[in-house]
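Hi support team,

I'm opening this ticket because the web form for multi-chain structure prediction keeps timing out on my end. I have pasted the exact lines I submitted so you can reproduce it. The total is 612 residues across two entries, so I didn't expect it to be a heavy job. Is there a limit I'm missing, or should I split the entries? Thanks in advance, R.K.
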Amino acid sequence: MAKRIEAVGVTAYYGSVKVIEDITMVVEPKTVTALIGPSGCGKSTFLRTINRMHEVVPGARVEGELTIDGQNIYDPEVDVTAVRRTIGMVFQRPNPFPTMSIFDNVVAGLRLAGVRKKAVLAEAAERALRAANLWDEVKDRLDKPGASLSGGQQQRLCIARTIAVEPEVVLMDEPCSALDPISTLAIEDLILQLRDRYTILIVTHNMQQAARVSDRTAFFSIERAGEPGRLIEYDDTQKIFSNPREQKTEDYITGRFG
Amino acid sequence: MTSPALSPLPLRRRRLPRWVPLCHALGALALSAVVVRGTGVGGWVLVGLLAAVLYVAGMHVTTARVAGSRAARDATWRALIHAAFLIAVLPLGSVCWALVSRGVARLDATFFGTSMNNIGPRDPMGGAYHAIIGTLEQVGIATLITVPLGITAAIAIVEYGQSRFANTIRFFVDVMTGIPSIVAGLFVLAFWVLIVYPVFNDGRPGYSGFAAALALSVLMLPTVVRSTEEMLRLVPAPLREGAYALGVPKWKTILRIVLPTAWPGIVTGVMLAVARAAGETAPVLLVAGGTAAINYNPFENNQSSLALFVYSQATDSSRFAPQRAWAAALTLVALVMVLTITAKLLARRNRLAH
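Hello R.K., no limit was hit. The queue was backed up. Here is the completed structure from your submission:
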């Protein structure tokens, strides 16, 4: 059950600094949407507003409306932990929990949500690891520390950990920027498989990656340093990379800017 | 054409033969022995010091001649750093040597099995059993009080650090760090021994091991809070965010992700506090009173402790007392060391075996 995300006039601040302004876009269920743009244009910030991770930083706040299947997640009655369980997130650098084994890492979300039954956990772990294309590599050493894996495996472990709690949406913040090309390929394959079940948003600096994995692409940019980031163009990936509507988008994609 | 800021370095340079340092060392030793002994102004310590200075100077000159001035500066600084290390380690080694060499004389079964009850000035035996019991109970109770309180306070400061409450805690912890142990003892004497304890004791004030534990926990608390705070700050933010992103509430993230990650460091901080508390004499003297007899009950009557035992034996007129004091000092250091090693092993076992 993937979900539809609708952002209307989303503006985010760190303290008094406005980082993104007036982002309005709709993400359809079971699609992969790439967010591209130069550094500091606010694409990661926008991603973090979608599962309310932006506000984890002291002094950060969000204005505007963000709805998931019609429900505003910034409604005061909304439970933040429920939002984050529905909308999972994979970070730039793999961050497995260092005190936990591979198995414990995968089921961490379930265990901390109160699931105790061993059989349930074991089944969920296998399902998530298989979905993350990691099962065959780790099935014989599930009790080894998560940190003993290679960088690419750790990132897939983090993806497995994210999908183990069965979210509807998966946010990925430059998931391959710390990985080598082969691990990157493994994760891109994985994204294409996950599209069947989840709504995926991915921030990337790699335009080939955006072109390879996404259905739709959103281009963010800033006028100059210190200005808030804005959504410049949002369209089918095919269209953005072959025949963009905006001159700025074309300049960025062809490498003339950014 | 301007000259470059750096002249190019030759890739190869001549090296000093291996036998040169040894020759210099022997030469410096011989020369300083001749000088010091000849003038008759000092002993072998002065010979060693002078030889070290001569060695460093001689090596500098020779290295500069053979391998160039840069290599000479490198060798000299290296020698100075090694010397600084030796000077820092020397007192520690000296303390260990003094403790072991003088402490072993009375390290026997009687010492660990009996108290000082009915031991007169002419009796050679007597032991520290009552003091060991006292130290273990007092420090144990103090740790039980301090660890939960200290860790909770550190969490309040680090994880909920923006609030005025947290800032207040931080301020008072800083103030507490500077409390002299005698003041902590006086505080407990006034507050517990003279005011609270009489309520439970038909109006009569009284010493107890528990009062000593209270005073020790006043001293331990700032150390535990401060070190736990540092350790919690070292836990990388992405770990917390990773847990938040799984829909884990903040309090559960702290308990299940942040604390276990910081645990080995927290244990180290706790053991530092335990070591300090175990060595305190003044508060125990003030509020537990000290005794020659065994008292297992920390809530009633006088208790002794190892540090207090060392103090009382060191000032005792009996000619057998100094040996008991040294043995007790050695026991105290060994006890703290065993506790620290055990705690670190346990903390490490909680982590995964690689």
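A quick check on our side: The CA atoms of residues 263 and 347 of chain B lie 7 Å apart. Let us know if the file doesn't open in your viewer.
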